[in-house]
């Protein structure tokens, strides 16, 4: 043994030469990196009826299910942390609820929970910078954005004509809703040909020019990837029907039934059974959405390879990434078992527990990532209905190599409400939601920040329909969205304070979901009541023409618009707001620019203060060299302002004059 090996630790360190320190540090970092790649999750034993409530809450699926249940019941998490409750065995809960839920419910729950044997591991390693964390996205619904040829339908040339507007707004990246060839049963989300452009929108040459013009302006473009299903007019499905012996028969989910009824009780999100019967085959085929949107069989390797090839084709053209439509639905449980009755009644859809977080979801996402996205360093954001924070961590943590981000929808309705309820949204819930995600999502994950998209009504109309508050409320929402940690996604029209439309009758509706729901409701209630309920949550509110000016049809088209608008555009439009320094549009422009100039508003830490104070949302964003403070009044009432120390400089406010108290929906950004 050498003298060096006999030395105490302190003296031993003195033999490490300074020039070797960097090498040692690099090796240590490499070992930590390997550890994080291999050990960022912990395995857990399978859950059973002897498992305790605390064990179920430790499971990512169990956590998110129980968390949402508590929200719906308006109960605190403290309930589950109660020593008595958290140590209850599941079998005791079953005995206590056997009349209301039944043992079958818990059988299904355990089967669902045991799909996931891993749970996230939190390592405080700092945030890894990425371009998609620093940008502001803008979603375009092409059909309603800008019409260039007077046919009443927005198109690619129309989008090109407005790129300078988007650049001046501060947009860095554009997300296009589907522009692929489609029979338009669900406005493009039923794809007939992944390699062609819908004729109403233009040509592939038009798309190539759009992509070039976007990149010329230093912006990026992502497309919608709809691969849970295709149109029934897609060549794959047509061949499956015509030639049952072809490989394409296995591309979809066909089943025979024992009687003349569908193979199981699954229901469609667009009303009715989730099955179509094909007489020529004497078989049924699954469609979770419209009758023309046929679900693909992702367990078929050829399906996955064809999809990977298609993704690579678009990425090789220069597309920067994709938004993945209902991507968490792609893996269905083997055999497509019947949906549990209690779950169906609670959720409003039967069978959902068999596919919303399927057994092979992670496997298939990792496969897409490695085979298609990674070679092009492409960006991905998944639409994941029903998925909560813990499941989202497993889908998006950077060490997992699956998705970059997800859209979680837990904040779009307050507890106890669904989209088609007519109620007033309480922004105090939004505050709680954002604080929870800001504090607990972790540095390895990155949040998407949004209120609106093509599937949801306008946020201003949800919160307060009083026109007197429209402007300050629109600016308040912008302040929150653009100063929190995450990537903002602005939906077209949001930047001018767009609100829900005053549709006059069911004949004004164009959305297949709204039309089907109206037909279903009118069988049980009056036409007036049915229409009122549909209007509360219709997706058509977000799909009316973009309001460019006070000219005919809001400057959207010289023809007849494919969907009606109302008189709102005469006062609320881009042209007027560009001329008004105090407009919602110019508030967005200022905020976006300020966000770009100050990385503390992107990568900085988040600290909420006065968390329990009702109607008040106040927080700090801190970087290495700068610090900001945001204060918001979440109500239509005047509330007392939090006392600020000296040294706070007001950067931006949605009110032009200072006041002692915070006025309705007041929002202020300070530099500390």
From TrEMBL:
Residues 139-543 form the Glycosyl hydrolase family 13 catalytic domain. SUPFAM superfamilies: (Trans)glycosidases (SSF51445), Glycosyl hydrolase domain (SSF51011). CDD domains: AmyAc_SI_OligoGlu_DGase. Gene3D superfamilies: Glycosidases, Golgi alpha-mannosidase II, Oligo-1,6-glucosidase, Domain 2. InterPro entries: GH (IPR017853), GH13_cat_dom (IPR006047), Glyco_hydro_b (IPR013780), O16G_dom_2 (IPR045857). One of its GO terms (molecular function) is alpha-amylase activity. Keywords: Glycosidase, Hydrolase. One of its GO terms (biological process) is oligosaccharide catabolic process. Belongs to the glycosyl hydrolase 13 family. This is Oligo-1,6-glucosidase.
């Amino acid at each position: 043994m050498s003298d060096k090996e006999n030395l105490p630790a302190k003296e031993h360190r003195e033999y490490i030469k300074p020039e070797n320190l960097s090498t040692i540090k690099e090796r240590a970092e490499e070992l930590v990196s390997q550890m994080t790649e291999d050990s960022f999750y912990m395995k857990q034993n399978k859950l059973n009826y002897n498992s305790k409530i605390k064990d179920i809450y430790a499971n990512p699926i169990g956590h998110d299910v129980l968390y949402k249940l508590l929200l719906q019941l308006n109960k605190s998490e403290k309930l589950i942390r109660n020593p008595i409750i958290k140590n209850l065995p599941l079998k005791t809960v079953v005995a206590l609820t056997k009349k209301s839920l039944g043992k079958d419910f818990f059988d299904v729950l355990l089967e669902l929970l045991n799909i996931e044997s891993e749970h996230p591991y939190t390592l405080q390693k700092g945030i890894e910078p990425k371009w998609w964390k620093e940008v502001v996205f803008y979603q375009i619904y092409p059909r309603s954005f800008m019409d260039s040829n007077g046919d009443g339908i927005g198109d690619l040339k129309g989008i090109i004509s407005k790129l300078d507007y988007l650049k001046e707004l501060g947009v860095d990246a554009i997300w296009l809703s589907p522009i692929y060839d489609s029979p338009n049963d669900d406005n493009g989300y039923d794809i007939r040909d992944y390699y062609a452009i819908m004729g109403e929108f233009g040509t592939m040459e038009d798309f190539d020019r759009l992509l070039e013009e976007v990149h010329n302006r230093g912006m990026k473009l992502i497309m919608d990837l709809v691969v849970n299903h295709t149109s029934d007019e897609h060549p794959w499905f047509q061949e499956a029907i015509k030639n049952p012996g072809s490989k394409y028969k296995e591309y979809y989910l066909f089943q025979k039934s024992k009687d003349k009824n569908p193979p199981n009780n699954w229901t469609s999100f667009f009303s009715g059974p989730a099955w179509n019967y094909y007489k020529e085959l004497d078989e049924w085929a699954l469609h979770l959405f419209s009758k023309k949107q046929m679900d693909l069989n992702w367990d078929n390797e050829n399906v996955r390879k064809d999809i990977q090839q298609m993704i690579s084709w678009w990425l090789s053209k220069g597309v920067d990434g994709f938004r993945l439509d209902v991507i968490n639905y792609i893996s269905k449980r083997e055999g497509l078992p019947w949906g549990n009755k209690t779950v169906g009644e609670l959720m409003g859809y039967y069978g959902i527990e068999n596919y919303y977080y399927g057994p092979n979801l992670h496997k298939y996402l990792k496969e897409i990532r490695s085979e298609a996205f990674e070679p092009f360093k492409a960006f991905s954001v998944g639409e994941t209905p029903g998925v909560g924070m813990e499941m989202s961590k497993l889908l998006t943590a950077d060490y997992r190599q699956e998705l970059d981000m997800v859209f979680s929808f837990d904040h779009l309705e307050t507890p106890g409400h669904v989209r088609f309820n007519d109620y007033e949204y309480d922004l105090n819930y939004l505050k709680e939601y954002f604080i929870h995600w800001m504090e607990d999502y972790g540095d390895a994950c990155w949040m998407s920040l949004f209120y609106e998209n093509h599937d949801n009504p306008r946020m201003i109309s949800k919160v307060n329909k009083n026109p007197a508050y429209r402007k300050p409320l629109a600016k308040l929402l912008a302040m929150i969205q653009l100063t929190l940690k995450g990537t903002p996604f602005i939906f077209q029209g949001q930047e001018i304070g767009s609100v829900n439309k005053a549709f006059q009758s069911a004949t004004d509706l164009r959305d297949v979901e709204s039309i089907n729901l109206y037909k279903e409701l009118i069988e049980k209630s009056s036409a007036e009541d049915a229409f009122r309920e549909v209007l509360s949550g219709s997706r058509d509110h977000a799909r009316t023409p973009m309001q460019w000016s006070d000219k005919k049809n809001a400057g959207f088209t010289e023809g007849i618009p494919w969907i009606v608008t109302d008189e709102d555009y005469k006062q609320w439009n881009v042209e007027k707001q560009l001329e008004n320094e105090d407009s919602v549009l110019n508030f967005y422009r200022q905020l976006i620019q300020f966000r770009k100039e100050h990385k503390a508003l992107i990568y900085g830490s988040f600290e909420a203060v006065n968390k329990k104070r009702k109607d008040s949302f106040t927080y700090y964003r801190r970087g290495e060299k700068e610090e900001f403070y945001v204060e918001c009044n979440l109500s239509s009432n005047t509330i007392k302002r939090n006392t600020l120390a000296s040294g706070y400089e007001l950067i931006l406010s949605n009110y032009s004059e200072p006041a002692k108290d915070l006025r309705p929906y007041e929002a202020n950004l300070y530099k500390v």
